[in-house]
Amino acid sequence: MKKFIREINDFYPEYLKAHSNKSNRALHFIGTTAFFALTVFAAVSQTWWLLALAVFCGYFFSGVGHHYLEKNESFRTKRALGCIISSGRMYLDTLTFSIGKKLRAA
Predict the structure, then answer these.
(1) Which of 26, 52, 86, 97 has fewest C-beta within 10 Å?
(2) What confidence tens digit (pLDDT) does each residue in 66-82 have?
(3) C-alpha to C-alpha distance for 79 and 65, rounded to whole angstroms
(4) Does residue 1 fall inside a structural domain?
(5) What is the domain range of residue 69?
(6) Residue 46 lies in a domain
(7) Structural domains of the chain, count
(8) 98, 23 Cβ separation under 8 angstroms
């Protein structure tokens, strides 16, 4: 487990460098927020097709950001679990206004 945590911590700066464009990070934030909101709403309302929309929103906004703004490819296919965890970290860093400091350190 320690090795896994170390690998995730080592990967996070690389993940942040691939998200250096502020607008791309904003699209990720929107997509992640939509994912969480739709997932909760789907569970509360038992409207299960909304889960598909939640996943679509999560990937759509980040895909647009990478393709059109960052002009790079996502790590999703190569390091899926690391990307999911790092995406959550970036989301929390954005919420706590510490993303700028983390980007400078990367």
Answers:
(1) 97
(2) 999 998 877 666 788 89
(3) 18
(4) no
(5) 22-105
(6) yes
(7) 1
(8) no
pLDDT of residue 77: 67
pTM: 0.88
DSSP string, 40-71: HHHHHHT-THHHHHHHHHHHHHHHHIIIIII-
Distance, in Å, from the CA atom of 18 to the CA atom of 72, rounded to the nearest integer, reads: 7
**Token pair of 7, please?**
């690998």
Amino acid at 85: I
**In-domain check, residue 71:** yes
Read off the pLDDT of residues 11-55 as tens digits, 9 standing for 90 and up.
999 999 999 999 999 999 999 999 999 999 999 999 999 999 999
Tell me if 82 is assigned to some domain.
Answer: yes
Rama region for 46: left / alpha / beta (φ>0; ψ in -120 to 50; rest): left
User: Left (φ > 0), alpha (ψ -120 to 50) or beta: where does 71 sit?
Assistant: left
